[in-house]
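INFO  loader      accepted 1 record
INFO  loader      residues=882
INFO  predictor   begin
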Amino acid sequence: MNDTIYQYQVGGSLPQFSPTYVIRKADHDLFNKLKSSEFCYVLNSRQMGKSSLLVRTVQRLTADGVACATIDISDIGSKQISLEQWYGGVAYKLTSNFNLLDALEFMTWWQDRESISPVHRLGELIETVLLRQVFQRIVIFIDEIDSILSVNESLEDFFALIRSCYNKRSQNSEYDRLTFALLGVATPSDLISDRTRTPFNIGHAIDLSGFQLHEVHPLLGGLADILANPQEVLQQILYWTGGQPFLTQKLCQLVLASGKMNPEFLPQLGNEAEWVEQLIKTEIIYNWESRDEPAHLRTVRDRLLRNPQRASRLLGCYQKLLQFKAIPPDDSLEQTELRLSGLVRIVDGNLIISNPIYAAIFNPHWVEKSLFDLRPYAEALEAWLQSNCQDTSRLLRGKALQDAGEWAKGKNLSDRDYQFLAASQEAEFSEFRKNAEQTEFKIQQLYREKQLLEELTQEQNLREISDAKLQEYRDNLSQRIIGVSGALIAIFSFLIGVFGVNNSIDKAHTKLNGTALLSQALITENKPEFALIESLEAAQQLNAFIGVNSATQFRVALGLHQAIYNFIEPDRLLLPHPAIALEFTPNHQGFVTATPHTVTLWNRDHTLALNLSKISGPIHRIAISPNRQLIAVTIPNHPLQFWTTTGEKLPLTLPHSHPITDVSFSSKAKSVATAEENTVKIWRVKDGKLLQTWRGYPDQVLSVMFSPNGKTLASASSDQRIFVRKTSDGKLIHILEGHRDRIVAIRFSPDGQLLASASNDRTVRLWRESDGKLLSILQHSSPVTSLNFHPNSQTLATGTADGTVNLWNRDGSFLTPLRGHQKAITHVSWSPEGGELASTSDDGTAIIWNLELEDLVHQGCQLWRDRSISHPLTPTLLKRCS
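INFO  predictor   done
INFO  writer      dumping tokens
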């Protein structure tokens, strides 16, 4: 075939008789549906061949005796155009296409009907002019229908008019001859929201997919004369383009041009794949923005980034697709917009990236850079990084931090983003604590003033002061106390907003949280009686509020807990040796403790139930299964032993050649993982069979942990890194880096969404399980020795070398310290229901902290009665505590 005649079409509609036109299933579907007078619409991304499909379908229908008209909506205009002008433009195009009226006749006809609305005039034109002068079947193609979105006025009446033409078929048979086809880059919901007026639910969606291999024979014509194996080259082109029409035509043209200019550089038999790949990288991917003529890739980019607020959500959705390669499709705005950009498509029930060219250009690096440019805090982040992360004035504060947190949700950001946000959170929290301390000091002064007033009023020399004056002073003092307390509540409420505990917090939450925090302030002021009363009041008020969230309930419980333990000792268990761990047994039966010499089962009332016998040698660690039925005991130079929580020794033992440093049960206790030296092993519990062995860790493995679903296993090495692998085949998924000292403990949240790591570098880091991204850094005043998640996954307990237990929200915001140990914490654990927290220490004690609100209220009421505490709230509490 003559190369001067054979030309591939790169952009725009293919000429009517172009030899490179590829007939697809959509050609047959659209032609047959319209020929049968059915309404149709083709809504797809740009440069998928809609215009060429329209031209070819008009050609075929005209040849079959159908009268066709094409109205390009974009030609009518959209900016500063009135409904009168818009409908007039559509009507004029309609009459021109069918040669119904000349320009003067049309203007007269249109102006004569100014008394009726423009849409009614268009409807009358169709019924009284078009259907009466054109006697064949009629198809009206409305192209670039998405241009309607740029018109300031609502055009939903236009779609209602199209629908009415269909509905009138039952009343007027002339309408049986009239059909519409709508084409554009939009979704039906974009164009019209009222489903009772939309024509899309009476029409047929035409699926315009990319070129398939069995369809592309017309494209071989230009390649056959210059290639030894044109079929293989074309197949490789389709692989790279995914059949995208514009890219496919462009690559065919590039091959044809290369053959004309340098025939010696054409592919040889057998190396077609490598040759096409190199051609694509050289001519399309490298420096793609400057090579993208006519614009195609830039069109995709611009559609993604055209709206900064929407773009961040689109890129966050696209990031998930880059990570997982395929995700389930849904009707979300983000997925819909990605599909309309052409970047993604649905194949075999999965949403995937449309082709390898897009994947190579719009890669993770491009997404990260684009997100960086879109960041609402980009300037502050850049300045902070340039200061080597030392300039705290660049950190976010207040609403800027809250907005940044909202913006970051659902996105896979860089480590520097998470470090910046975590540093901003820490700075904001430090500022909050400073303000709270100042407010607490003011409250302390006011209460001292009140106490002094109460003492002075008992003196004889003040009897001269009138009762009215004394009452006035008391009222003024009370108002000042309330005002300062309100300031503290306001500070706390603001903190809640910043850290996202509850962005839609209402007055009930504010009041309860503020009262709980006020209780803590009163404890600091050495006002335990007032703290107890305020905490009891907050706890009692919980019953009056509907929908109080778990975070608020937990904070109220914490406030009451701290108030109570200012009067009484916590539930403390004295052990003969430094405690290694305490774990709760099921159904409130009791708990099990471990010291270097004994493993002991205890009853609920702290009476001894049983010492596990036949355990020789120093005990290094114990682990309890998630169902709390089995206990694993590690002893250096001895096989791993297993016991039931009723005290029965199992015949199962697991050998090892080096001391076991950690052990973890899978969620259903079917498997157990052990760590020894630089090796991790997975065993089957029922028979002790070795299932997996992972060697070659760079340093000693100190901690292992199964994920809740058992599909992954995390292991922490002394080299300050965490390795996450699939349990099925040991494939490495993530390497988590960032700690500056060895990692001593790791834990998954029970919901499987977070992984927490504790280190001697005085931090706990929270990582997102799905992609390993750092979310928060929890700063501590001393090395962290232990950590554990609450069963509801919302709270994290950490133990430190200075004997403090700290409680944190899962977002990284600090809740409160619990103090009662004299030496380093060795272990923290929650009861199965989460109402109790246990901590063990090198001081030989184990403390069970009661955080069950109902129990705390009962204890608090009893304390109040026993101590006969006088307070303005006394009459109210007397009623509630009775």
